[in-house]
Design brief:
The complex is a heterodimer of chains A (about 375) and B (about 325).
Chain A (H helix, E strand, L loop, with lengths): L18 E8 L19 H15 L6 E8 L5 H8 L7 E5 L2 H8 L8 E4 L16 E3 L4 H14 L4 E6 L3 H17 L2 E7 L7 H12 L7 E5 L6 H4 L9 E3 L4 E3 L10 H12 L5 H20 L4 H9 L5 E2 L5 E2 L12 E5 L2 E6 L29
Parallel strand pairs in A: 1-2, 1-3, 3-4, 4-5, 6-7, 6-8, 8-9
Antiparallel strand pairs in A: 10-13, 11-12, 13-14
Chain B lengths: L1 H12 L9 E6 L4 E6 L4 E7 L4 E6 L6 E5 L4 E6 L4 E6 L5 E6 L5 E6 L4 E6 L4 E7 L4 E6 L5 E6 L4 E6 L4 E7 L4 E6 L5 E6 L4 E6 L4 E7 L15 E3 L5 E5 L5 E6 L4 E7 L4 E6 L5 E6 L4 E6 L4 E7 L4 E7 L9 E2 L4
Classes of the chains: A alpha/beta (about 375), B mainly beta (about 325).
């Protein structure tokens, strides 16, 4: 704590060296939006991390701590390991926020330069990174696909909309999203009554949606049409174009997400405003994860009143570490696979429909553990939790 | 709430001595209005419009001026309580949320939630005396009874910032648990009580050393721990009780202010934000944000005796004593 009687809180000298947090991103080429939506911004994630640094410095100055961000962006096709080795030339990076696909995340976590590093995954939702492909010192701030699916399924079960007709896109990510929905339906006692796939390539949806989707979504009695289309190639056009008058849920329509424009409770409105002031745009889930990752490092340092990376690492990896995230509860990392426990939102573009865990879904440890892989379900051994 | 109403008939029937007609003013965050409750009948006697998203509320020492933090109007409004008419605005800084009036009766300390500052305003000259940098999202504000120290709590930085009221500089910070929302000095000024909404605790701080001497935890059967979210605090002048509003657990905790042990939990309306004591300290009123009502608690029996419907999202409350020169108690703003 500060020396009582110090003339001014700002007079406290920052520790000799600031805590350096790296941000490494693999740029992704994305398809052109179909319906003139705002494209996914180039700086998604990075701006969140920047706000995290700003917030951490605002707090850190009261205990003599400061933080800096060193961003590295790797182009599609470039070697992310080489880029990381370059970064590590200035000394082994201790805290690295990673916004990249799962294979990149594993490559970095396995690299020689990263043997002392705490990696914070903010971009890859792949469940396997929290399962058999987990790594020690690899924490996941972004929720996995199975957490997202569980959040959605809890709402559907709560509303007794338990019969799903599933439409999947052709991409590998769509397959993984569909798989998460299947697993979750089983977990919560919902039923996928029929499955079909749809490939938007070669069709002009602006002309064909009205007729084509009516055919695609014809099937046995169902309560909702679930869609797995992560890249947004057709899902938005499926809404209101189904054969039966049924809500669309999943990657479009009613979507489960870590964050969204309509989130405002628990002082989220303040975080949203700070982000908008900094970035000039809405805070997206990966932005929130970037902010949250940096904030977690900052909060661990402030709790310790120390910038010592080893001590910060130990606290972050210990089960007793708790941190706020504007979600109305204390958040913490699951010791068995490094996933951040967190409430998730069920959103449509206009509003937050509900926050999961939905009331009534109980867990002996914390209700937050009803979302995603529980300890007995996860094949992760590397965390030692 | 039906149950409470039935009990209230009995309790009020037993009231032999007519109480003095104080008034309790409640800010309705979503209605942009203030409801006025009469303490002889415990009914709403009138409601008047104020600025957008009113939260903190406090009276001037003589009870002639009502100050309201209209957060979304970026103003502290000065209102004639008799008519409900806006007299003028005070410069408040951006997004004022809670404030506190110093014992000198004219210096207002205002927490500006959106820009990490505390604004100090002279309510008489209407001039800003200082803007002090504090942690992120300052919320709770209190001034010590001797007027020498002001404190603000920052919700994201998780600290209590100590401000020297003479130099108007932040001189120290004390770390508390997550999301500190409200601060309240004991009447003798030796202790500061601070609620941590997400931490789920109340810190009792020794003012001389600025160190936490006790962290009070809460446990309610059948209510999950993360619904216990302490916000408003009221302390009785005799040093006997502390009342802590526990948010979405829909309860007020009663704490023995000497042993710092929880004595009981009183069921009130939904999402209880703040509390305020009547001048006689025989009743405690709570603002219940989600159910849109105010619960009246009998301090003698520690029982809820009535609920009063007010506007949408009632948040802060302040008392205007019958003899307005008297004490000035409020919630959502410590005196």
């Amino acid at each position: 704590m500060l020396v009582a009687g110090a003339a001014d809180a700002q007079a406290v000298k920052p520790a000799a060296a600031p805590v350096t947090i790296h941000y490494i991103e693999r740029r992704i080429e994305r398809p052109t939006p179909l319906n003139n939506e705002d494209p996914i911004p180039e700086d998604e994630g990075l701006r969140g991390a920047e706000l995290g640094i700003k917030d951490s410095n605002a707090t850190g100055r009261f205990v003599g701590l400061s933080f800096t961000l060193k961003p590295t962006v790797v182009e599609p096709g470039a070697d992310i390991r080489a880029a990381f080795a370059e970064v590590a030339k200035d000394g082994p990076p201790r805290f690295v926020v990673v916004n990249a696909p799962a294979d990149d995340v594993i490559a970095l976590a396995d690299s020689e330069e990263g043997r002392e590093t705490v990696f914070l995954n903010v971009g890859a939702t792949d469940t396997r990174l929290r399962d058999g492909d987990c790594r020690a010192r690899l924490l996941h701030v972004i929720p996995s696909r199975d957490m997202l699916a569980d959040a959605l399924m809890q709402l559907l079960v709560f509303k007794r909309w338990t019969r799903l007709l599933l439409v999947s896109g052709p991409n590998p990510a769509d397959g993984l999203y569909a798989e998460a929905l299947r697993r979750s339906a089983k977990k919560f006692g919902a039923k996928i009554v029929a499955e079909t796939s749809f490939d938007a390539r070669g069709a002009d949806l602006r002309d064909s949606a009205l007729r084509e989707f009516a055919l695609v979504t014809r099937g046995p009695e169902h309560d909702v049409v679930a869609v797995a289309d992560e890249a947004g190639e057709f899902g938005t056009n499926l809404v209101y174009n189904t054969a039966s008058p049924r809500p669309v849920v999943g990657t479009q329509g009613l979507t489960p997400a870590a964050w969204g424009r309509a989130v405002e409770a628990w002082a989220a409105a303040q975080l949203q405003q700070r982000f908008k002031k900094l970035a000039g745009r809405t805070m997206l889930p990966v932005d929130w994860a970037g902010w949250m990752a940096v904030h977690a490092v900052g909060e661990a340092a402030v709790q310790l009143k120390s910038g010592d990376p080893a001590a910060i690492k130990d606290l972050m990896l210990s089960p007793k570490f708790e941190v706020g995230g504007f979600k109305g509860r204390s958040l913490s990392f699951r010791p068995w696979n490094g996933q951040l426990r967190q409430p998730l939102y069920l959103l449509w573009p206009g509003a937050v429909v509900a926050a999961a865990p939905i009331e009534g879904f109980l867990h002996r440890r914390t209700e937050l553990d009803t979302l995603g892989l529980d300890q007995p379900e996860s094949a992760c051994k590397a965390m030692g939790g | 709430m039906l149950r409470l109403t039935t009990v209230s008939l009995l309790a009020f029937g037993a009231l032999a001595v007519p109480a003095l007609a104080h008034e309790i003013y409640v800010t309705n965050e979503r209605d942009n209005s203030v409801s006025v409750i009469d303490t002889t009948t415990y009914e709403v006697t009138r409601t008047f419009p104020v600025g957008r998203r009113p939260r903190g509320i406090v009276f001037s020492k003589n009870g002639q001026h009502l100050y309201v933090c209209a957060s979304d109007s970026d103003a502290v409004q000065v209102i004639d309580p008799a008519t409900g008419k806006l007299l003028h605005d005070l410069p408040s800084g951006e997004d004022p949320e809670q404030f506190s009036l110093a014992p000198d009766g004219r210096t207002l300390f205002i927490a500006n939630e959106n820009n990490a500052t505390t604004t100090v305003v002279d309510a008489e000259t209407r001039k800003v005396l200082a803007q002090i940098d504090v942690g992120i999202e300052p919320e709770g504000m209190a001034v010590s009874p001797d007027g020498k120290t002001a404190v603000t709590t920052s919700e994201t930085t998780n600290m209590v910032h100590w401000i020297d009221t003479k130099t108007l500089q932040a001189i120290d910070a004390t770390q508390v648990e997550q999301r500190p929302r409200h601060a309240e000095f004991s009447k003798d000024g030796t202790r500061l009580w601070v609620s941590s909404e997400i931490g789920g605790t109340v810190a009792v701080i020794d003012v001389a050393s600025r160190k936490v001497i006790e962290t009070i935890r809460f446990e309610i059967k059948g209510i999950s721990g993360d619904r216990i979210q302490p916000v408003g605090i009221s302390l009785t002048d005799d040093g006997r009780y502390a009342f802590v509003a526990l948010g979405p657990s829909d309860r007020v905790a009663v704490i023995d202010a000497k042993t710092l042990k929880v004595i009981s939990y009183i069921l009130v309306g939904r999402r209880v934000w703040h509390t305020v004591l009547t001048p006689e300290q025989d009743r405690l009123l709570t603002t219940n944000g989600v159910s849109g009502d105010v619960t009246v608690i009998d301090v003698g029996s520690l029982k809820a005796i009535k609920s009063i419907k007010v506007g949408r999202f009632p948040w802060g409350a302040a008392v205007r004593p019958a003899t307005s020169a008297g004490a000035n108690k409020s919630a959502g703003a410590a005196e």
